[in-house]
Design a protein that fits this description.
Two copies of one chain form a homodimer.
Chain A: H1 2-13, H2 21-30, E1 38-41, H3 44-54, E2 58-63, E3 76-80, H4 83-100, E4 108-113, E5 119-128, E6 132-139, H5 142-145, E7 150-154, H6 159-166, H7 172-175, H8 186-202, E8 206-217, E9 220-223, E10 226-230, H9 242-253, E11 257-261, H10 270-281, E12 286-290, E13 296-297, E14 300-301, E15 315-318, H11 325-335, E16 339-342, H12 353-365, E17 369-371, E18 377-380, E19 385-388, E20 396-403, H13 406-419, E21 423-428, H14 437-446, E22 452-457, H15 463-474, E23 479-483, H16 497-501, H17 504-514, E24 518-519, H18 523-532, E25 543-548, H19 551-563, E26 567-568, H20 573-580, E27 593-594, H21 601-613, E28 619-625, H22 632-648, E29 655-660, H23 664-674, E30 678-681, H24 685-700
Parallel strand pairs in A: 11-12, 11-15, 15-16, 16-17, 20-21, 20-22, 22-23, 23-24, 25-26, 25-27, 25-28, 28-29, 29-30
Antiparallel strand pairs in A: 1-4, 2-3, 2-4, 5-6, 5-8, 6-7, 8-9, 8-10, 13-14, 18-19, 18-21
Helix pairs in contact in A: 3-4, 6-8, 9-14, 11-12, 14-15, 18-24, 19-24, 21-22, 22-23
Amino acid sequence: MEQVREILDKALAEGRTGLTAPEGREICQAYGIATPGEGVAGSATEAAELAAELGFPVVLKIVSPDILHKTDAGGVLVGLKTEDEVRDGFERILASARAYDPGARIDGVQVQQMVGGGHEVIIGAVTDPTFGKLVAFGLGGVLVEVLKDVTFRLAPVSDEDALGMLDDIKAAQVLRGARGAEPADRGALAALIARVGRLVSDFPEIVEVDLNPVFADANGAVAADVRIIVGEPPAQVTRLSREVILGQMNRIFKPRSVAVIGASGETGKIGNSVMRNLINGGYQGQIFPINPKAPDILGLPAYKSIADVPHDVDVAVFAIPAKFVPAALEEAGRKGVAGAIMIPSGFAETGNVAGQQEIVEIARRHGMRMLGPNIYGYYYTPENLCATFCTPYDVKGSVALTSQSGGIGMAILGFSRTTKMGVSAIVGVGNKADVDEDDLLTFFEQDDNTQAVAMHLEDLKDGRGFVEAARRVVRNKPVIVLKAGRTAMGARAAGSHTGALAGDDKVYDDILRQAGVVRAPGLNDLLDYARALPVLPAPKGENVVIITGAGGSGVLLSDACVDAGLTLMDIPPDLDEAFRAFIPPFGAAGNPVDITGGEPPSTYANTVRLGLTDDRIHALVLGYWHTIVTPPMVFAELIAEVVAEERARGNVKPVVVSLAGDTEVEEASEYLYEHGVVAYPYTTEKPVAVLGAKYRWARAAGLLR
Amino acid sequence: MEQVREILDKALAEGRTGLTAPEGREICQAYGIATPGEGVAGSATEAAELAAELGFPVVLKIVSPDILHKTDAGGVLVGLKTEDEVRDGFERILASARAYDPGARIDGVQVQQMVGGGHEVIIGAVTDPTFGKLVAFGLGGVLVEVLKDVTFRLAPVSDEDALGMLDDIKAAQVLRGARGAEPADRGALAALIARVGRLVSDFPEIVEVDLNPVFADANGAVAADVRIIVGEPPAQVTRLSREVILGQMNRIFKPRSVAVIGASGETGKIGNSVMRNLINGGYQGQIFPINPKAPDILGLPAYKSIADVPHDVDVAVFAIPAKFVPAALEEAGRKGVAGAIMIPSGFAETGNVAGQQEIVEIARRHGMRMLGPNIYGYYYTPENLCATFCTPYDVKGSVALTSQSGGIGMAILGFSRTTKMGVSAIVGVGNKADVDEDDLLTFFEQDDNTQAVAMHLEDLKDGRGFVEAARRVVRNKPVIVLKAGRTAMGARAAGSHTGALAGDDKVYDDILRQAGVVRAPGLNDLLDYARALPVLPAPKGENVVIITGAGGSGVLLSDACVDAGLTLMDIPPDLDEAFRAFIPPFGAAGNPVDITGGEPPSTYANTVRLGLTDDRIHALVLGYWHTIVTPPMVFAELIAEVVAEERARGNVKPVVVSLAGDTEVEEASEYLYEHGVVAYPYTTEKPVAVLGAKYRWARAAGLLR
């Protein structure tokens, strides 16, 4: 540690950003990272002894301050395999060097272990603006450079996580010895990754590390080349304690009173919409309209200033132009308001960064939390609270949704209403000048009204804070994230190879997965996952069985299962026989179980019941085919009944359905959904995708180990 | 050619499936495929001369019938770089061999060009059960073996197509000289691929070819190892001429008369549903119910047998059990029926392969075409023809849909009805015992009522016939294909490396793309593409511009554009300025053009009109954000109007819209769709995905070159 400290201090004192190769090697050695053995020999005998000690083959290089181009001077020999060859080589190098420059001072000959066998990999570390110190791992050569086959983790990493990284690249098989190659020493590689992670965590001023290439064979891993870049350590993030955040968030989500700054009686004004939504939404706490001119608004007495309100105020909703905000916020702070809901725009999003900074400082000075600015407000249905200028929403349920953009917030509202999605909260975070996803996750974690969280985000202010909060929540509730800006891989100035590989989205993808978050590929997926995940029970194992009336749907559902990373159960003979007892002789058991198209409702009921009762099966995917014999609503009612009966008996498993048929299947899908069976018409992909999302969460929560 | 013929005949006569290495090399030479030069030398001088001729470095190998293990005998030397080294090497090898076995007969020393520089690639050919002869290309080593980075084309391939293959692998950059490597001689590689394609096309009994590895550098490409497998050539497919197929299909889709074999007056019977659908669907030709017992059915005179019908019959719809089909089909054939619509199941799909073969033969004997068996029937809306037991469908339009599965057919029907999708035809192909996708494509190609074709398929009977037909259609109309069974990569017995790489789906994917087909990833995509593609005009260039009221949607729409392979236009300064004139100062021009959320309808109208009139822009993606200032229907009506006005002025460009807002955006989306603007609520992905599909077709049709 001291040794590393000294090297870094020296480099920084000299204004250098790059360390020299010997400095890099010294740091590696201090952290137990193997580099090729080496030494300087003054005689042929010394060289031979050194080589024997290091292990063959070796490389010899002339050491002379006067010879810059060693190769031109005949000063480099590679691949020497015996002591004799080394002795001979020593003399040849000396002779060549003297012939090249008779006056050159010669300090000796460097003897270096020659590495290059086994697998070529790259291990590195970068300092990410969002997540801070990250370690990276990939296979060397074409695989990382052309195919970008690399994986990232937050540093430091445990040895176990580092081992996981080895399997997280597309070409993972290679290290396990694909194509008859020697398998790499996985333990040594993982240890090396973990050491790099410790190094950059111990010394934040190390901004990038490149061990490239690292040669790994069955006996270990050696970093053949080391590049270390130093610089400004990332700024320390100050975080509030969980208790403090909870105290604040509970006052914001369950306020006893709400003031509306800029409340108005005039239709069309934001301050009027907010007032009406609070009142019509059914909020039971006290509502204080603040307006310097009106004596009362919508039947409630109004106050000239929040200071005049004769009660405590938990939340102040701002519905005034940006320029009036600072003074009003100052008053709110003095009043002891817990949460300022900052609807106004005209701050950082329009370039007014100073204005935003000003209100952040006011809020901070008073220990007040601020949501926004530039938001539509927020909903919390358990309190009938619609503190927003949008329309009220009253379908209570267990998913909390947040969005960074107002447009996405509106899409959440419309989708929720049309699908009757049960919601606990909808929160706009806008510019995230203060309250961000970490704060909200901290609240939703302990909120019994919330069983799943779905977040649209474009960036994270404090990536590590988010990961920490998400990891805690994920243990009990799914966290679904739509990360926008996936493909905008900002060109980033990078001094190292690893740095150049750290495209924004690859980093987000790896780190969000590491946090146990379920990433939604698009907006509609976010909404569908948000609606379905609280409805689906958690699976208890990986065995998925498809039961279908339409062979064609069965094939497409199988495709979808593979796409969603689900495991189609290998049906054991006794279970196969049990299914066969219910289906026609030309139907196909196995998986999918194809009951064939002309079957009566009882065939669906019998096979689904078997699927629910057999303990070896953990989830069901149903394919329904509209026929006269089993019409859509008959199927829907029957399946809902069978699922409910079996749930009552303790056979609680996720069931999803794809319905193929005429328009009546739409009503049947809705009926099923309302009865706890996730169902969609005209798609074989969506039911399986949401089941896949549930599985991703169940795995992250450790339910399937 | 003769030389190759002889080698193959000899191998086949000897019952061999594999050719020897010298046989393989000889075949390669006959086709101009470079293999390492070689020869046998009897003396050191001869060896040195031979080596100079072949080019250095070379490999020397002892040639002796008595020495099996050449290396053990010191009989192999590699990497000899000069004539002296070769001369010296010749003597050393001879000495070693003699020392190893003094009695061994020695025929000389083989001198072989040593290859191995540049890039290692694999070039091969396989015989696919669906598509016949295919050529394959991939990068050698880990890339093909672990990452399966390989591409296929129908053999033979043109040099131009072969060049395209080099860019079709993920690691294509490598051959262009990524990482400072020497670029490969692309012409030589393409020529080599083309030659392999010619070879397997000329000699169908060559079932697999493996050139692995091929070494390619800047000066050429040499096949270092050759493996050729011979066997049964694939069966010749007999195809009807286009004229014959058209004559048949026109009688089937535009029949003057339809007989219903098994017509019934009894509700619930298939023969009753078919009759009612024909009558209620509004079919204007003659309808002849066939039923041995009833004098009339639904008011129409019935006949005991089709033979009794006193008119010509174009189409006979079968609604009788399988066991009665052969006799009735025979009668239909004698009657001169053009098309037998074989609704009954109970044939190959239940294992009754012989029964299916029997009816195929009956149909063939009479020159009658058969659709099915095991289908729901077919619809052709221009003739008001609903020859099906499902419900009638009457929304006329320009997309023809076909499905191999009845369940998928029902999903097509339900989706069509609920989205009011205009359809020309819906056709069930079921077991495809006779009529298949090729026949239907041949009809739809020349059918003016059809402007796009969407097909669900699980397999192809004649892959080459399909590709041929699809290529013709694609020139004028999009062909969309949902290939089910993507992930069921059947384990295939393969004697070569290339064979093992030819997983079903990879082959389908490459060949369908080569045919210009737009592949839909799932059922819902198939339906959405089918609905949207005829509505969207074809783009005239690659420049896509996003105009959005919600910054958040803009980011997601950009992500979606990259996912869909669309090019976000780099907006030139004058155009940027023109957009800026319409938007607030804190709005963002560039691309997306962010008009910001609070804007009135005129801002949408002005920017969209600019996008439609500027010739450098080829397609628009709009992001709408629901506000009080611009409510959803105001936006929808205005955009529909602007688009219609500009279309009337000749500014015809595809416009797609993503609407974020409360439930009113659903009605607005429908309104827009009905007015030729493809629009979806609550999703940023779908509008861009369908635009991407339109672009894929436009590129395949050569419209964007």
